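User: I'm preparing a small set of examples for a lab meeting where we compare how different chains pack in three dimensions. I only have the primary sequence for this one, and I'd like the structure in token form so I can line it up with the others. Please keep the answer compact; I'll paste it straight into my notes.
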Amino acid sequence: MFENSWSANLATFSVILEETTDDKISKLCIEAFMHSIKICGYFNMTVERDAFVSSLAKFTQVNTNRPIQAKHMSCIKALLALATNEGNYLGQSWYFVLDCISKIEEMHQLGTGQV
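Assistant: Understood. Below is the structure token output for the 115-residue chain.
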């Protein structure tokens, strides 16, 4: 069932997360992303998993010059929690996680004047 509805779920979660300013709604969308990634990982749905992880990574806003809001910080925390707890199921999606961590480290170094 999930294999047939994943793209609609991804689109729905993404649009709502992008447009919402309500913390409760954004947390529910991020939780839905996390559960979707877990389902994809457990059932070896690599294309679907990569789509969800890359979308969640984009919502961290670390690759843009836009201000980071609370929902973006929640996305960063969720991505790191997935890497910590579900790392064995991420496969090729580790690229998105490591890219996000790299950008965070770069921002940290810029902020502390180490670069």
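A couple of notes for your slides: The mean pLDDT is 93. The chain is about 75% helix and 0% strand.

User: Perfect, thanks.
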